[in-house]
Amino acid sequence: MRPTSEAELCEAIRDAGGPLRVRGGGTRDIGLPVAGEVLETGGLSGIVDYEPGALTLVVRAGTPMAEIEPVLAAEGQALSFEPMDHRALLGTDGAPTIGGVVAGNVSGPRRVSHAGACRDSLLGVRFVDGRGRVIRNGGRVMKNVTGYDLTKLMAGARGSLGVLTEVSLKVLPRPEAAATVVLSGLDDARAVAAMSAALGSPFEVSGAAHDAEARLTRLRVEGLAGSVAYRARRLAELLSPFGQAELIEEAATVAGTWTAIRDVTDFAGRDGDVWRLALRPSRAAALAARAEPRAARYDWGGGLVWLLMDPGTDLRARTGSFDGHATLVRASQATRAALAVFPPQPASVAALTAGLKATFDPRGILNPGEMI
Amino acid sequence: MQMPDPDSRVLSRKAQIVERLRAVLPDAAVISDPVETRAYECDALAAYRCPPLAVVLPSTTQEVAAALALCHAEGVPVVPRGAGTSLAGGALPTADCVILGTARMTEVLEVSYPDRIIRVQSGRTNLSVTGAVEGDGFFYAPDPSSQLACAIAGNIAMNSGGAHCLKYGVTTNNLLGVTMVLMDGTIVELGGAAMDAGGLDLLGLICGSEGQLGVVTEATLRILPKPEGARPVLMGYDSSEVAGQVVSDIIRAGLLPVAIEFMDRPCIEATEAFAKAGYPMCEALLIVEVEGSPAEIDEQLGLITQIARRHDPVELREATDADEAARIWLGRKSAFGAMGQINDYICLDGTIPVSQLPFVLRRIAEMAADYGLGVANVFHAGDGNMHPLILYDANGGELDKAEALGADILRLCVEVGGCLTGEHGVGIEKRDLMEVQFGPDDLEAQMAVKDVFDPAWLLNPAKVFPLAASAGRRMAAE
Question: Which fold has domain B108-225?
Answer without folding.
Answer: 3.30.465
